[in-house]
């Protein structure tokens, strides 16, 4: 079944620019530096010709956007989706710059993507496309320049092919530090698979503390039940919350008495979707967003919470596992309704933080225990949450504006200190 996605006229790069404009106003940013941040440093478009299983040649289009590297090498995932666009990739790379600055890890922002429908491709076609894409971008990525990672519909398998292709091309020795999100056997990190969901669960814990929300009586709705959504749901359940609604691309399920996340994951593994889960009633994807709950987790794709449905959201906390799920107009509505939005750049920063830990382990040829990884992640995300929350209180702005403001300040400081050359 092909992936459905809410077709939207909102251009993600326009949205990213709007967010930057607002932050620039708040910090009184120099016009020239504002322009520097409004343009990715480099965007590469590659055509990817491969032989399909039927013998025909098909040409896919791939992108790699490198937004800013003032604080360190570009870092960001690679997305496979039929609706990938150059503007989406550019926006995501800018958000990665902010995300790395908020997490205070020494990276800039990058992002990649291929316009394709991976669900309709064989394993062989996927491998040939991935390797050809890696070949196409090999000269602009590198362990000290640009370190990709997984994103929507890519995972350890694709990362391994990219690492292998890059290593073969560049000196023919294993270079695990070229990419993160790898399988454990070739230098992946313990705790990486759960990292995004785990980081999100820490930010929700911190938000609940500030808002005096009791996690043992809290209810959770999750849109999107992939890597980020599944672990977020499971870890919030472990904190005592009750997951009551979950959806994926095929539909949603609801049970006011609670859905056991482990059982739902098994169901999705065998049936390919959450739909048809025992002891639940089926609901639509939009119903999940509007579910009466304490914590809402958008964990699918962008532009899901808009002007049209924002006022129907009743959660106290919206924690964005997905990138860009809330539009600027919706943000204002949620802020007016006193809903605390933990923005993507903070809420899902656990993924890139553990990617950073993976990279450090690879560079040092070390392996850390899962506890070491999780403890470091907890400290890092808790500090990031606290930095953003105090900025939000100080400037009396929503958490997204506070995040962008904090990030812009950190990136601008680095640009100023380094200076412009040539
Ligand atoms: P994934 O491919 O593992 O899962 C995506 C899920 O969303 C699937 O369950 C899919 O069925 C569902 N989905 C797609 N369209 C939907 C729709 N219209 N309604 C409801 N569900 C829908 O991807 P992921 O890695 O979990 O990423 C999800 C989001 O989280 C993306 O925005 C991604 O950029 C972001 N993110 C992920 C990570 C990570 O480490 N995985 C890190 C940071 C951000």
Account of the 3D structure:
The structure is a single chain. By secondary structure, this protein is of the alpha/beta class. Helix 3 packs across helix 12 and helix 6 packs parallel to helix 13. Nicotinamide-adenine-dinucleotide binds next to helix 7 and strand 7.
In short:
With 422 residues, the chain is an alpha/beta fold.
Most strands sheet: 7 strands, mixed
Any idea of the CATH topology of the largest domain?
Answer: Rossmann fold
Q: How much of the residues is beta strand, in percent?
A: 15-25%
How many structural units, i.e. domains? 3
The CATH superfamily of the largest domain is known as NAD(P)-binding Rossmann-like Domain
**Count of alpha/pi helices:** 14
Low-confidence stretches: 1-7
| Strand tally | 12
* Ligand identities: nicotinamide-adenine-dinucleotide
Rg on CA atoms, Å? 20 Å
Kindly, what is the distance between the CA atoms of the first and last residues, rounded to a whole number of angstroms? Answer: 51 Å
Q: What top-tier CATH class of the largest domain fits best?
A: Alpha Beta
Q: Kindly state the percentage of residues in helix.
A: 40-55%
- The shape is globular
Average pLDDT, to the nearest integer? 95
Sequence of secondary-structure elements:
HHEEEHEHEHHEHEEHEHEEHEHHHH
Placed side by side, the strands forming the largest sheet appear as: 9-8-7-6-10-11-12
């Amino acid at each position: 079944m092909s992936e459905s996605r809410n077709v939207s006229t909102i251009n993600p790069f326009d949205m990213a620019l709007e967010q930057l404009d607002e932050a620039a106003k708040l910090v009184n940013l120099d016009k020239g530096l504002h322009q520097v941040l409004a343009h990715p440093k480099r965007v590469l478009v590659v055509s990817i010709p491969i032989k399909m299983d039927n013998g025909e040649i098909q040409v896919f289009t791939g992108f790699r956007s490198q937004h800013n590297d003032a604080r360190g090498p570009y870092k960001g995932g690679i997305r496979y989706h039929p609706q990938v666009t150059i503007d989406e990739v550019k926006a995501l790379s800018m958000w990665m710059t902010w995300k790395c600055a908020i997490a205070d890890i020494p990276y800039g922002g990058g992002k990649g993507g291929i316009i394709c429908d991976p669900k309709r491709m064989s394993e062989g076609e996927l491998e040939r496309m991935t390797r050809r894409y890696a070949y196409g971008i090999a000269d602009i990525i590198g362990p000290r320049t640009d370190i990709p990672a997984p994103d929507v519909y890519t995972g350890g398998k694709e990362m391994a092919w990219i690492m292998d292709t890059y290593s073969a091309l560049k000196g023919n020795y294993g270079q695990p530090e070229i990419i993160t999100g790898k399988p454990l056997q070739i230098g992946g990190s313990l705790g990486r698979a759960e990292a995004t969901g785990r980081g999100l669960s820490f930010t929700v814990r911190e938000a609940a503390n500030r808002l005096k929300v009791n996690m043992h009586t809290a209810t959770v709705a999750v849109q999107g039940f992939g890597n980020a959504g599944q672990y977020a749901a499971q870890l919030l359940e472990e904190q005592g919350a009750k997951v009551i609604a979950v959806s994926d691309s095929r539909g949603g399920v609801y049970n006011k008495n609670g859905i056991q996340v482990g059982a739902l994951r098994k169901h999705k593994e065998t049936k390919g979707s959450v739909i048809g889960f025992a002891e639940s009633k089926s609901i639509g994807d939009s119903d999940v967003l509007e579910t009466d709950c304490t914590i809402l987790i958008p964990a699918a794709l962008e532009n899901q919470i808009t002007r049209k449905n924002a006022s129907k959201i009743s959660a106290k906390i919206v924690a964005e596992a997905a990138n860009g799920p809330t539009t600027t107009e919706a943000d204002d509505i949620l802020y007016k309704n006193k809903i605390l939005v933990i923005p993507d750049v903070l809420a899902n920063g656990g993924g890139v933080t553990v990617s950073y830990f993976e990279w450090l382990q690879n560079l040092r040829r070390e392996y850390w225990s899962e506890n070491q990884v999780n403890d470091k992640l907890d400290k890092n995300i808790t500090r990031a949450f606290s930095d953003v929350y105090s900025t939000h209180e100080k400037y009396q702005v929503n958490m997204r504006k506070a995040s962008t403001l904090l990030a812009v300040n950190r990136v601008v400081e680095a640009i100023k200190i380094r200076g412009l050359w040539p």
